[in-house]
Design brief:
Blueprint lengths: L1 H5 L2 H19 L11 E10 L5 H16 L5 E8 L3 E8 L5 H14 L12 E6 L6 E7 L5 H17 L4 E7 L4 E7 L1 H6 L4 H11 L7 E4 L2 E4 L9 H5 L2 E3 L5 E3 L4 E7 L4 E5 L2 E2 L1 E7 L5 H18 L3 E6 L3 H30 L3 H23 L6 H30 L4 H27 L7 H36 L5 H5 L4 H19 L1 H17 L16 E7 L6 H14 L6 E7 L14 E7 L3 H18 L4 E6 L3 H6 L7 E6 L8 H8 L7 E3 L5 E9 L1 H6 L4 H12 L2 E8 L2 E7 L6 H7 L1 E3 L5 E3 L4 E9 L2 E4 L2 E8 L8 H10 L2 E6 L1 H31 L5 H21 L6 H35 L4 H35 L4 H34 L6 H4 L1
Parallel strand pairs: 7-25
Antiparallel strand pairs: 1-3, 1-4, 2-3, 2-29, 5-15, 5-16, 6-15, 7-12, 8-9, 10-11, 13-14, 13-18, 17-19, 17-20, 18-19, 21-30, 21-31, 22-30, 23-28, 24-25, 26-27, 29-30
Helix pairs in contact: 2-11, 10-11, 10-12, 10-29, 10-30, 11-12, 11-14, 12-13, 12-14, 12-28, 12-29, 13-14, 13-26, 13-28, 16-29, 17-27, 26-27, 27-28, 27-30, 28-29, 28-30, 29-30
Amino acid sequence: MVRFLLARPIAVLMTFLALMVFSVIVFRTLPISLLPPIDVPQIVIKVNYPNASPEAIEQNVLRGIRDELMTLNGLEDMESKSGSEVGTIRLTFDYGTKMELAYIDVNEKIDRITNSLPSDLDRPQVIRINTNDIPVARVQVVPKEGIDYTEVSLLAENVLKKRLEQLQGVSLVDINGKKERSITVTPDKPALRALGMTEENVIRAIRFGNEELPGISVEDGQFRYYLRLATRVDTPDDIMRLPVTNQDGLTVDLGRVAEVKYENKDVLGYHYFGTKEGLVITVHKQASAKMNEMMPLIYESLEYFKNDYPQVDFELTQDQSTLLNAGISNLQTSLLFGGLFAFGVLFLFMGNYRTPVIIGISLPSSLIISFLVFYFFDISINVISLSGLALGLGMLIDNSIIVLDNITRKRKEGLAIFEACVEGVNEVMSALISSVLTTLAVFIPLIFLSGISGALFYDQAVSVAAILFVSLLVAFILLPMLYHFFFRNKSAEELAKEDSKFFGIVLRSYKRLYQIIFKKRGLSFVIFLVFIPIALLVSQLLKTEGLPPIEKFDALVEIDWNEPIGVEQNRDRLITVLQSLDGDYLKAESDVGVRQFLLFDGENSIQQASVYFLFETQEKKKVEMESLRKILEENYPEANINIMDAPNAFDQLFSSNLPYYEVRWKDLATKRPVEEAKMDSWLSTFPVQDFERGPGLQKEASVIFRLDGAKMALYGISSSAVQEQIQKLFGTFQITEIKRFGEITPIRMKGERSDFEQILRTSNIIGKEGNEYALSNFIYFDYENHYKYVTADKGGIYQSVLLNEENPTQFDRDISLWGSDKNLGVSFFGQYFKDKETISQLVSILMIAVLLLYFILSAQFESFVQPLIVIFTLPLGIGGAFIVLLLTGTSLNVMSAIGLVVMLGIMVNDAILKIDTVNRLRIRYSENTNLDPKAILDRALYEAGEIRLKPILMTSITTILALLPVVFSSGLGADLQRPLVFSVIGGLTIGTFTALYFVPLAYWFIGGKVSVKEKE
């Protein structure tokens, strides 16, 4: 095939040019995003129920929803948590479930049970989680001094949001911190009493005045008119003119017995930018959008906003496109330095400019054509797929050097240039194909990991496979054609003189060390084998983590005050803390209490707050965060404080809501939470001392109202009347609402803002014969510690503790016995079990990868023994990588693991080519010489080492030097790539030595037993 194609150079060249042009066109249509569009198999249902207790939300709302959702297809797990005024249900599905259909099913089931939910409850929000739901930027909207906040809220909702949503690539715009206007009615109780009226008279007057005749029409001759009641109200003035009538028929204007005015609705949360209250708009991108084109549009829109609305300050924060830019920058750096160092190393070894130029043409050609595969596999350009291309670049240089070196060697042997190109490619073709297949055999099985990790590896595996197969296409077709073009006028004698003096020195040094090692080959082989377990044991000294530590100048502080405070007190405390820092930060933004984001799937509680800080340096961040911790601990000792690096998109995607190890129990008798006093007594005998109370056991102080049923019956007062009166006094009692062109303005009865005991004493309720009695006669109260949350799963309500032990399973038997004695059903749950499952999967996948590697090499070498040589080289390279990671203080993380895969791919390549060359030389010498088999083997090993020395050294050195600049760089991209670089440098340093000396040693002791005649 190579001969056929080389005979038609113009056709081949035109085909490659056509592919490149088509690839450039396709590249312009590929979506560019930070992460692949992955459907996380989770759906979150959020419930906001003002003035409701955790027990009420669990009993009246969440339990019914859970029961209805129990039959969902593919449902793996269900967790619910109800707190004061808020509740959440998190549904986890089997990975691979079609989340579009699951989302529709959940909404349908909630619609089905809407009538059985409390009438004053807003429809529960259903949130589907996707990687595109991670906001790419946040726009801060801060009203200036004296500007009406509700007007700015309307501006954000009706104008800014719509203008941002119209930008190309924007899928959704979310807002937090809005305030809505309502009309409040505050009754004048003395005036009402004097006129013989009650609050009920006021409520009836307003409801009657806001009635609308639905679809009633009258005819007037040939015309038809729709009726509208003239009493319909629009403003507080309209309401104050409404007539209020008592039982005796006395009528007065409502304004004489109540105050009516516009006020902001009571809020459950606030947003602050610095110490100024404002709104935040989060921008989310479409899956098919290009982030690098969308972000400039957002910045441009922000400038328009500043000019159009000078009464509001705007600022853009937390721009996530910096991660993508870092990934693209790393790829550009790899290409640039890869080309420069390849040129330098090739010139150093070969002493001509033509070979580097050929590689300089092949590198971008392979890269551009690879984007065709992206298009056909529907892969976006993202950080994951770009990292796959970066991994493939090292292998691409490797293949090019091997092919060019082999063609040059054939020319030096005296073949004509055409024949040298054909023979040079054919000789290494099977070995290069095997090396690519073995690399993919190590890498591609990782896509079968369950969950998000497997989905992410899919993009990486496709991109690696794309560039490797394209590199083979280029190496087998384009490179020999270019070589023919550049070297057609060079004779074999001229090529023989082109080896540099430097390579001559390296070759002599290699031969001397080779002879020393092979004089004591037994001892040398044992030393290599002993090094394997020692190097692998180094992994036990390495710290293990997910992503590498990135130098971040931002921090996130999460606070749970752990006290029964309102959202206003939460806000005031946070502002006081921020002011105490004296503005020693570049930016700060806070979300206080319940968040209004549609896509927010985290904890929502009035007592919680989170603050994002951006600092000038990492040292400044460390000092200020320590200062903040001290301030909080000294002033608010009850508060739970969590200070961390601000999570980027990767962190948010990989973060887990699961505790490490949780012991759960359910009361089998009552199906309810165990009472506080009894539970405290039981926990004193819990088998483990070091534990933390789970959410279902956390307590908060609360006031418990109890009704005196005997007195109420005596005075003719119903419990429903008392509950309604309490709602009016302490809650937000909605009378009716005004609807105008999609805008809804609620009319609410405003309760008194004073001590609740005083309110109970001064508020009356009507009993028998119209007599009034103070509410305090029928209500008595206690202060009690009460459970802060009610937690439940598919099996019902549970309570739990979190264990902090290194080996938590050792207590499982004792805990089970503790639970059975108390009629508790005990179960164990947490990230510990997920991690064990992942490790089990990784071990299985690794075994499959090694088997695939063995089968491919067995087919390549036609031997069951020789593949073991290649497999033995792998732990040597891994050990070398571990040693460098340890010496540089680098952890074993996702990026260093990817580096191991890259390094193993190059190592396998070198070992395969060397063994293939030895096999071919043994066959040639056995046919053309009368040497005994041992002498043939010695000669083949020696000459194969000399033949493959140059490509092995060049591929290793070019790869190491191309990656080396990352070690000395700074910034987000360098921090991410540095562990990968250390893995590759460590592995290739040992791996190169392994390919040069261990492979021939192992071949002598293992592979040499295979007869050459058998292989023929």
